[in-house]
Design a protein that fits this description.
- The chain is α/β, with parallel strands linked by helices.
- The protein starts with a helix and ends in an 11-residue tail after the last helix.
- Helix 8 (about 150-160) crosses helix 11 (about 195-205) and helix 10 (about 180-190) packs across helix 11.
- The radius of gyration is 20 Å and the shape is elongated.
- The chain has a six-stranded parallel sheet, sandwiched between helices.
- The chain has helices at about 5, 20-30, 45-55, 70-80, 95-105, 115-125, 140-145, 150-160, 165-175, 180-190, 195-205, and strands at about 10-15, 35-40, 55-60, 85-90, 105-110, 130.
- It folds into two domains: about 5-135, 3-Layer(aba) Sandwich (Rossmann fold), CATH 3.40.50.2300; about 145-205, Orthogonal Bundle (Arc Repressor Mutant, subunit A), CATH 1.10.10.10.
């Protein structure tokens, strides 16, 4: 075995369309970065495949039979925490990206992206980084990750600010004191590492993340 093969990262594919799996395998056949060692066609079988093969990377679709790719990612990382997960999807949706990162995925590649993005993503995530392809490449991964640190209440208040409500109006609507609203805003600004309330709202709106998941606390 030559050095390029030894250095290749062991990858499992999970997509319910065989033609997609075959296309990826064909494209990666001569790659010095990616070695396809296994595959699965649904969100349940992939957990067993990963457990058996212990790959470096799992490339997984979101829309799968039996269990969706987000839930499958969580289950895979329970049985094999060292495996890096790359979401491979046709959907360029910031909310889906946020869910993927929250589930533990390290990469997000669009099916419409150049085939080379797969190898680039594998190299990035196995090197300890995060890979966001397509429309998300212009935004720093750290920006998206910071949004995940906002509490549901902080997201709710930023959403109301984006709608044009003033602090007093938000306080009345949420049955909070204006001081409490100001505290939530300050906390959001600190978590997002921006300087102003306007920047915090703009960043959240940019990724369409406001109001995603959970009730206010």
């Amino acid at each position: 075995m030559n050095s390029s093969v030894r250095e290749a990262k062991r990858v499992v594919l999970c997509d319910d369309h065989e033609i997609v799996r075959e296309a990826i395998k064909a494209r990666m056949a001569n790659s010095s970065i990616v070695e396809i060692v296994g595959e699965a066609g649904d969100g349940r079988d992939v957990v067993d495949v990963v457990k058996e093969l212990e790959p470096d990377v799992l490339i997984i679709d979101v829309e799968l039979p039996k269990r969706d790719g987000i839930e499958a990612t969580k289950e895979v990382l329970k049985v094999r925490p060292r495996t890096k997960v790359i979401i491979f999807t046709a959907h360029a949706q910031p909310d889906l990206l946020a869910l993927a990162l929250r589930a533990g995925a390290s990469g997000y590649v669009l099916k419409s992206a150049p085939a080379d993005d797969i190898a680039r993503a594998v190299k990035a995530v196995t090197g300890g980084g995060t890979f966001l392809g397509g429309d998300f490449a212009g935004g720093k991964p750290s920006e998206v990750e910071k949004l995940l640190h906002l509490s549901p209440r902080e997201r709710q208040i930023l959403e109301l600010l984006a709608e044009g409500l003033r602090v007093k109006e938000i306080a009345e609507r949420l049955a909070l004191s204006p001081a409490t609203v100001h505290t939530h805003v300050r906390n959001a600004i600190a978590k997002l590492e921006v300087d102003t309330r306007t920047e915090a709202v703009a960043l959240a709106v940019r990724f369409s993340y406001l109001g995603a998941g959970g009730g206010a606390v």
